[in-house]
């Protein structure tokens, strides 16, 4: 039960943090919403479903080969900690989003897929954070792996959909103090996971 709960909680925390954290995809979600309405922002939010499967599979195939090499996995974990620290810092200094050009055709799904494939964040996240966590979770059974992925994608897409809806209805919120405090809270949650990954990385290196 503890493993199931840990997988669900980690999926929710990482999914919400990734969903609301600043980056090219969230910027596109908000700019499309401000230019063309929440419906177009929601279309962009669905991009991870269409793009992430090959990224996860490639990272899994590579990292699973090093499952018996603590030194390499330790370095990967430390790289993941640095990446999460960078994302957390970005949350503290995220500027308010700007609107796109309402005169252009939305083409939101195509733009979202292109933005996510060109975005380095999914590749770095799954290679240094997501797949290492999945490999560790796999020891508890396939159900925990599926649960983590289901909760993670439900939260990351749900977060971006919520961002589109809020941006469409409450545009002033994006430039308010409440928005900055919310982003700071996300940054702190990412620092927490960075600490956990750093501790795991140092433990693996010590046992190598």
- The proportion of strand residues reads under 5%
Estimated helix fraction: over 70%
Overall body shape: globular
Helix-strand topology string = HHHHHHHHH
- Average pLDDT level: 82
Give Rg in angstroms: 17 Å
Low-confidence segments: none
Question: Between the first and last Cα atoms, what is the distance in angstroms?
Answer: 30 Å
SSE class: mainly alpha
Oligomer classification: single chain
Number of separate structural domains: 1
DSSP helical segment count: 9
Describe the SSE topology.
Blueprint: H1 2-20, H2 24-36, H3 38-45, H4 47-64, H5 70-92, H6 108-118, H7 120-137, H8 142-169, H9 177-206
Characterize the structure shown.
This protein is mainly alpha-helical. It has one domain (2-206). It is built from 9 helices and no strands. The longest helix has 30 residues, at 177-206. It is globular and about 55 Å long.
Short description:
With 208 residues, this protein is an all-alpha fold. It is 81% helix and 0% strand.
List keywords for this structure.
mainly alpha; 208 residues
